[in-house]
Amino acid sequence: MVQLIALGSLKTAASTEEMRTALQSSGGCSSSSCGSSEGPADLPPEVWNKVKDHPCYSEEAHHYFARMHVAVAPACNIQCNYCNRKYDCANESRPGVVSEKLTPEQALRKVTAVANEVPQLSVLGIAGPGDACYDWRKTRETFDLVARAIPDIKLCLSTNGLALPDHVAEIADMNIDHVTVTINMVDPEVGTGIYPWIFFRNRRWTGLDAAKILHERQMEGLEMLTARNILVKVNSVMIPGINDEHLIEVNRVVKSKGAFLHNIMPLISDPAHGTHFGLTGQRGPRAMELKALQDKLSDGTKLMRHCRQCRADAVGLLGEDRGQEFTMDHVPEVVAYDPEKRQTYRSIVAEERGEHLANRQDASRRLAAVDAAESVLVAIATKGGGRINQHFGHAKEFQVYEASRDGVTFIGHRKVDQYCQGGWGEDATLDGVIEALEGVRVVLCAKIGDCPKDSLSAAGIAATDDYAHDWIEAGIAAWYEATFGTAIESLTA
Ligand code: CLF
Ligand code: SF4
User: Fold this and answer.
1) Rounded to an integer, what distance in angstroms lies between the CA atom of residue 347 and that of residue 356?
2) Could you give the number of structural domains in the chain?
3) Helix (H, G, I), strand (E, B) or coil at 236
4) Is 378 helix (H, G, I), strand (E, B) or coil?
């Protein structure tokens, strides 16, 4: 993806001032061709300190901070119908071949190289490509090595939960504050449609027995973690007709057991991935179906809506993948950790966040003052930093917000194929973008040409670059005021 923040500039920025400019700027070409938002006030200080730099646990942090995964844990102890073992773990990654599996020593070299080069890096996660708890020796060794060499990185792991209870004590001792457990059901009958078998206590289990064991172990692991104040995110794969309605009950149960976040991810079931679901025609949910389910849960456990279903070897801000820049052939044999870039970046982000927060509060006040009842979806083209700073044609995803008098709420993202291909746009691609923007009323971006604007308009979607480089919430509030404030005045005139 085009960098979310002006990453090209950040890579070469030598001074604090250069880094600040790079963070705030839009970057990109100047062509005009077609082309959990919780903050410090919402959380107890000890929880805010754990999540404020974690791009997955804080929606606000994901504008600024990056994660990386190291693919050190290839073995798995269960079979999910949405997984093909040749591909990444679909718990935490979109199906796609892992570029390379690493030893713990290789992982340390890679993490050090990324920490030196990517100032946004704050979290090291182990999310497969199998199961981090089943392949525990390699997971543990990797975290031990990294924690000694780079003490200011957060450690995070993801698991299917079957082996989790055996390792909770060590997880707590290792200061791992964030654990994700994929829980797709709390009723084993539902589980029989998702898991054909598990491997547990030296034997293979199938059918209802397998689902019962998995369920009991997931609940046990969840309770053990929350009892130790470890933040638990529950991931659930939404599988229409199998567990979609049931996820309401999953949400209720995991909330009652202390889960911090619930992340409902759409099933990916491309037949080309060779999964059981892909090959048997099981479809994934549409964006609006996912939103409808999430809206039903809005009073439940806090929902994560900004997950990108990233690969088990992903590197960078969520929504971008710089993994190919850091394959082992790009990593030096000997690499020493240099914290300077990351420390400088953090001090700049601390200032930016203050300004962003003030802007969000101001946007809420402005929206509350508009005499309108409309609740609309607004799609934003952004490279990160919390601003409207990407050209329409460069976007590989749009961030979608809901705007009403009640404020601005992040809803999710819509992936698209990049429309602009070096100065010209592809009509077929634009059709796909329009389809992906189902339900959206307006697109706010840094630049858009007349050609895509007209096509969007014909599909009932407005688009404007009038709010280029504004903070996202401020731009949305200004557009809402201009659109509905004026409409009310003209109606009452
Ligand atoms: Fe990785 Fe997962 Fe930790 Fe994040 S991902 S182990 S919690 S550092 Fe994040 Fe990626 Fe979604 Fe996972 S966007 S797939 S939720
Ligand atoms: Fe695949 Fe992950 Fe499920 Fe294991 S837990 S079968 S690796 S999706």
Assistant:
1) 15
2) 2
3) strand
4) strand
359 within a domain of the structure (yes/no): no
Per-residue tokens: 86? 């040749």
308 lines ligand 1 (CB under 6 A): yes
CA distance 406 to 162: 42
User: Does residue 268's CB lie within 6 angstroms of at least one atom of ligand 2?
Assistant: no
The pTM of this model reads: 0.82
Residues 450 and 320 occupy one common structural domain: no
| CA-wise closest residue to 382 among 471, 288, 492 | 471
Q: Are residues 406 and 317 in the same domain?
A: no
Same domain, 259 and 387: no
State if residue 310 touches ligand 1 by the CB under 6 angstroms criterion.
Answer: yes
Same structural domain, 81 and 132: yes
* 293 lies in the same domain as 410: no
Query: How does pLDDT run along the chain (493 residues), one tens digit per residue?
Result: 333 334 444 554 555 665 655 555 433 333 332 224 445 567 788 888 899 999 999 988 888 899 999 999 989 999 999 998 665 554 545 433 466 789 999 999 999 999 999 999 999 999 878 999 999 999 999 999 999 999 999 999 999 999 999 999 999 999 999 999 999 999 999 999 999 999 999 999 999 999 999 999 999 999 999 999 999 999 999 999 999 999 999 999 999 999 999 999 999 988 888 899 999 999 999 988 998 999 898 665 589 989 988 888 889 888 777 888 898 889 988 889 999 889 999 888 888 888 888 898 999 999 999 988 899 999 999 988 889 999 999 999 999 999 999 999 998 889 898 888 766 667 778 999 999 999 999 999 999 999 999 999 999 999 999 999 999 999 999 999 999 985 444 333 3
Reference 82, options 249, 236, 203, 188; nearest CA is 236
Residues in a beta bridge with 401 = 378, 410
Structural domain for 371, as ranges? 365-484
Tell whether 286 and 371 lie within a shared domain: no
Which of 330, 355, 387 is the C-terminal boundary of a domain?
Answer: 330
Ligand 2 nearest-atom number relative to CA 85: 1
